[in-house]
Structures are given as structure tokens and as C-alpha cells.
């Protein structure tokens, strides 16, 4: 039975937001990988960054769901017949899960569209939190915890994507901070555990070791992830994924010791392995950015599954300062390409009502 939210939202709109992320070791958060590789203790690493996706629920006169999102045409459908293969199909799938109608969903992102920073997963986390908040206030259900929101966002995304999806983007959005996520694949409890790499007090200093660039071309991670999954299922590249696990472990251990140079070496090795498996994971601009990073003694990696979107770099502060000038010059040669601010987000999911 559908729940018409118009009357409640007329007196109190609901706003939520969640951060995007930069990452390393991705794909290992897909169950296709972490179950058979659990003996190697797979993990992924991500940093929540203060490029937030904001979701607002507003009243809507018609008994439908309307969605407005930056970069897409507005769309509205009855909740029971909304298409999940629509460009905003995940948003409609979430509305269908909660059987919500009489609502206008507004999504505003501060990150570039399809930038490889986990934007669709972030929007899903923020929207689920918003619906859970409203339904709790009107007595229909209880407020979901962060862990529950992340798991539900992943399940719904995977159900409409038609391909296996990872979970680390939703976790970064829900929790914020700098974390390694351990994918132990246990049956009687959550398949992951959170390992905080830095205390909150150390996050601001660590920002000086980071650089983030949008390469000017939207990414298409679905095809790259599909190729990795298909090859893995066929028995190919298993040794390379084992090495990627080792690189990610070495990377996070180095950061815990504050050994930036060891982390840089592990980061560059992981990027090289993926580039050897899938050359299209990085285009010409991304290759130039990565080459420049190595020349300046820094590490560089694409975000998400690559294929366009963003590149991020790690290094000693002096090296990053030099690299910033080099990257800025490279990025001026492509329209829309630019450096993005890197502010680490320690809050994760946030709510507000008014």
C-alpha cells in the first residue's frame, strides 16, 4: 500500500546529504571477488570527500513520484509503474521500495556528473535516509541505522543495475572519514568490517597529501566492471587480483604508519596492474596525469572503475605542491577538466528538516 507524503511534506520538508569518495582496491567489495578470495583477506580503501550530494523531499500535488536531478530531464511516474531502466531508475526503485508518492525528489550534487566518485550510490544513501526519516516521523516505520541504509542502498542498486555492484561507495557515504573495509565474507554476520585509518583530529593535516582532478570526460564504469567480473569468473587474472589485494593491504598498513612513500609505491603498483588488465581504464589525459605524478614522486589512481571521471594523487606535501602546478597545466588542454577541492569529510550522512 502506497504512502502519500504530500501532507506531511507541506509542513516540513526533509533534507539529507552524503559525501562522495576517492578510493583504492575497488572491485574487491563485489561478492564475486571477496567470497572466493576471502582466504587472502581482501579489503578496499576509501576517503570520504566534502563533495556532497544533497537530497530534498518536497510535496507534490499529483499522487506520483517526481524526480529532478542536475544534468537530467525531470521525470515523474506512478510509484507502481516507474521504470527502473530509466536514467534515474535507481531513484524510482528506492521510492518503490518505500511505496512513497505525492513527493518531489530533488537531487543536487556538488561533484561533476559521472565523475567516478560514487555519485549514484551517494544519492541512494541520502534518499533512503530521507524516506526513512519521514516514515519514522509519521509512525510508519523506525529510523534505519547507517549500516542498514548502506546495505539497502547497495541491494537496490545491484537489483536494478543488472550487474554485480560493490558496497564501499555506500559505506563511505554513510560513515565518512578514511577507512579500510575488510571483506571477510562471513555468513552469520555482516560481510564487512570498518577499520578507521586516521582519527578525526588527523584528517585535516592529511588533506595536504592529496590532489584530485576531474579529467573532463564522464566515466562509464559498468562496462569495465563487467569485463573484470567476466574474466574473474572464467578463471583469468586471479593472480593479479591476489596482487591487488596485497597492494591494498600494503597501502593501508603504510598509511597507518604514516609512511607516505610506501603507500605511494603500493598505489602506483595497483594502478599499473589494472592498466595491464584493462588499458581502457585510463585515457590519454589520465595517463599523462599518472606519469606526471610518478615523476614527482607521487602515487596516482583513477577513482572507481575508471574509464573517465577523476584521478587522485597521494604524496609528500612538497611533492604534491609541485604536482599541482603540473596537473593544472595538463588539465587546461581539455574542456571541463579541472582540479577539485579535496576536503576530507568526517561526518558522512547528515539530516536536516525544516
Description of the structure:
- The structure is a single chain.
- With about 350 residues, this protein is α+β, with helices and mostly antiparallel strands.
- The chain has two domains: about 5-200 and about 345-354, Ribosomal Protein S5, domain 2 (2-Layer Sandwich); about 200-340, GHMP kinase, C-terminal domain (Alpha-Beta Plaits, 2-Layer Sandwich), CATH 3.30.70.
- About 40% of the residues lie in helices and about 20% in strands.
- It has twelve helices and 14 strands.
- The mean pLDDT is about 95.
- One of its GO terms (molecular function) is ATP binding.
- Pfam families: GHMP_kinases_C (PF08544), GHMP_kinases_N (PF00288).
Brief characterization of the structure:
The longest helix has 19 residues, at 119-137.
The backbone outline, from C-alpha atoms, is: globular
CATH architecture of the largest domain: 2-Layer Sandwich
Largest sheet report: 8 strands, mixed
Structural class: alpha+beta
E-strand count: 14
H/I helix tally: 12
Distance between the termini: 27 Å
| Secondary structure: helix percent | 40-55%
CATH top level of the largest domain? Alpha Beta
How many domain regions?
Answer: 2
β-strand percent reads 15-25%
Radius of gyration of CA atoms, rounded to a whole number: 20 Å
Extract low-pLDDT stretches.
none
